[in-house]
Amino acid sequence: MTVPTTIPETAAAGAAARPRGRRLALNHLAIGALLIVAVLIPLFTHSFVVFELTQVMIYGLAILGLNILTGFNGQFSLGHSAFYGLGAYTAAVLMHQWEVNYLLTLPAAGLVCFAVGFLFGLPALRLQNLYLALATFALATAMPQLLKFHAFEGFTGGVQGIVVDQPDPPSFLPVDGDQWLYYLTLIVVVLMFWAAHNLIRSRSGRAILAIRDNPIAAAAMGINSSLYKTLTFGVSALYTGVAGALGALAIQFVAPDSFTILLSISLLVGLVIGGVGSIPGCLFGGLFVLFVPNIANKFSTGLAGAVYGVILLGVIFAMPAGAAGFVRYVAARASRASNRSA
Questions:
Q1: Considering the chain, what is the average pLDDT of its residues?
Q2: Is 46's pLDDT higher than 60?
Q3: What is the DSSP letter of 168?
Q4: Which tens digits make up the pLDDT trace of 118-152?
Q5: Is residue 254 a contact partner of residue 161, using CB atoms and an 8 Å limit?
Q6: Is the pLDDT score of 17 beyond 60?
Q7: Contacts by 21-30 with C-beta closer than 8 Å and gap 24+?
Q8: End-to-end C-alpha distance for the chain, whole angstroms
Q9: 163 in helix, strand or coil?
Q10: Per-residue pLDDT tens for 91-121?
Q11: Pairwise CA distance, residues 20 & 236, whole Å
Q12: What secondary structure does DSSP assign to 232-299, as a single string?
């Protein structure tokens, strides 16, 4: 026998659905407004500003790759500078040695990094927490030395690196090289952020989150933890590798010493500052990674590291859950205040 739904229950359900609908509409409106602003920025700013914003998006994409692994799957990594460098060198070698179109180097870099990340994830299945961090630390430490190894100098250029030509904009677009690279990066970033959003909300994404939250319960539910962990490692490396390829196009140069463990630490700092487990927060992390060291240098060249540390501590104390957590806190306070006033 079906129990009829009472009028108060229906009204309560409708009242609960309305705020969710408003939040969803506001989120879509905010995303649309940000995209419009992002499209218009290069038309009203200097080339150097356009270049810096391109780098922010590239770092944000690399941080998103780390976030997929650490924030959503719970695997800790200090080796993503290796995947960033591998993606950059894949693009540089394909363009320099075989004259491959720069657009084709982006998926190629992603596929190469996916394969390496997946294969590295297989032995890493036996490692957890700090031991996995040490293994990825070893990967990040070894990568610059491998790029300098004399047996690979014919491809990597050794310590001299490789000069990368800046892509020419399509003839039908009234933009210069910096503006075209900005728009290309924007398109790639929007598509890959959208793909990550859909991945996390898919059945596979729920499995990835379940492994992070409770591995034993996930295994009891029939989730193949080994498969999902290695696939997540590969997808994470793919995102960071595409970011590295875009970084090679933006900087127009790759060299082994550009991809040291310091880059891995910077990506980890950007992840924490943006908000672990937040997709939009990765872009704020990119802003922090690029601009805060420059701000520290402007305060004092000799004490830049100390100033950077003070700024980092201040941001952590002010936003312990990262920028994404701070935004959620402010939005919740504003929502409660509006409900009380109503």
A1: 90
A2: yes
A3: P
A4: 999 998 888 888 899 999 999 999 999 999 999 88
A5: yes
A6: no
A7: none
A8: 40
A9: strand
A10: 999 999 999 999 999 999 999 999 999 999 9
A11: 30
A12: HHHHHHHHHHHHHHHHHHHHSEE-GGGSSHHHHHHHHHHHHHH-TT-STHHHHHHHHHHHHHHHHHHH
Each residue's pLDDT tens digit, 239-285: 999 999 999 999 999 999 999 999 999 999 999 999 999 999 999 99
Q: Quick: pLDDT tens for 144-192.
A: 999 999 988 888 999 999 999 989 999 898 999 999 999 999 999 999 9
State both tokens at 90.
Answer: 């894949």
Are 104 and 224 in contact by the 8 Å Cβ rule? The answer is no
* C-alpha span between 245 and 167 (Å, rounded): 12
Domains and CATH numbers, the chain: 47-341 (1.10.3470)
106's tokens:
């982006």
Tokens of 75: 């695997």
Other beta carbons less than 10 A from residue 341's beta carbon: 6
Relative orientation angle of helices 261-274 and 47-70, to the nearest 10 degrees: 80
Question: Which residues lie closer than 8 Å to 137 by C-beta, 6 or more apart?
Answer: 78, 79, 261, 264
Structural element, H or E, at residue 162 = strand 162-163
- The letter for the amino acid at 28 is H
Is 13's pLDDT higher than 50?
no
Distance from C-alpha of 125 to C-alpha of 217, rounded to nearest angstrom: 18
pLDDT at 114: 98
66 and 267 Cβ atoms separated by less than 8 Å: yes
The answer for residues whose C-beta is within 8 angstroms of residue 165's C-beta and 6 or more apart is 95, 252
Based on the number of CB atoms within 10 Å of its own CB, is 118 exposed (0-12), middle (13-18) or buried (19 or more)?
A: middle
For β-strands 162-163 and 253-254, DSSP reports them as antiparallel
> Residue 312 corresponds to which amino acid?
L
Phi, psi (5° rounding) for residue 254? -130, 140
User: How far is Cα 116 from Cα 85, in angstroms, rounded to an integer?
Assistant: 12
